[in-house]
Amino acid sequence: MMRIKFPSMTRSLVAILRGIKPDETAAIVDGLIEAGFTAIEIPLNSPDPFRSIEIAVKRAPNGVLIGAGTVLTPDDVDRLNGVGGRLMVSPNVDREVIAQAASHGMVTMPGVFTPTEALAACAAGASALKFFPASVLGPSGISAIRAVLPRDVPVGAVGGVSNDDFAAYAKVGVRTFGLGSSLYKAGMSAEEVARRGAAAIAAFDALEKDGS
Fold first, then answer.
1. Among 48, 15, 42, 51, which Cα is nearest to 31's?
2. Given 5, 130, 185, 209, which residue is catalytic?
3. Which tens digits make up the pLDDT trace of 109-118?
């Protein structure tokens, strides 16, 4: 199965903008990119998500990965490709969806919770794994599952994760994080999102500096 490699990033943080509206997208995306984010996900259960993704793609410079979350069907993948999205995040492991995204050259990050799901995602060619909800598994749960996974597949913690959790996950080798409600909630101002984004970047950089 073809695997698109997860890109090397200065900071492997994904901003999850669930609920964002098209008229809010430009200012919020600009603020997050200025703060230092290089991956932004707009879930498809947001208002007019493909329009927001298209706006985000046009705002993003080279090296910033823009895409969709809650991708459930190959048709969703094709529409994402049509507006220029390069990141496909799903809540489940669907081989057809992963294969369709890979055929478009997209980075894929399906959601997993168990060893069975994680290994199935690897076999399907996932670029990376999204352990969700990470707050339920915790660092120890993810660490136990990582022991049986291919070492070349990046593992991310998503769901109930904030800046305060980075160190605990880093201790078990997890350095990719998806930030949702701790970073953005529907209706939040661009200024507040930018402030939270800057705090997340500072926390991540401090972690890297400490070598934790």
1. 15
2. 130
3. 999 999 999 9
